[in-house]
Fold this sequence. Notes:
- This is Cytochrome c oxidase assembly factor 5.
- Involved in an early step of the mitochondrial complex IV assembly process.
- It comes from Patiria miniata.
- One of its GO terms (cellular component) is mitochondrion.
- Keywords: Disulfide bond.
- By secondary structure, this protein is an all-alpha fold.
- It is 56% helix and 0% strand.
Amino acid sequence: MPKYFEDKEESKRPCSGVREDLKTCLLESDCVRIDKKTPKECLQSGTNVNDNCRALQVAFFECKRSLLDNRTRFRGRKGY
Length: 80
């Protein structure tokens, strides 16, 4: 499922792998291609977005939240 590691240079930003996969998933979704909505509008409305994109959205949220959590000093960041 993750397409980030295929033919791409590694970014130094945290959560960049999940961000790239979420962006790719949203751009390939029916909501963007057929309904001609922006990815932000698709995530807010929730229509025509498949379960993989929703799972990536949750993973991206968890990764971003782990950046603010002080316990990550011991556990490490979530995501890839």
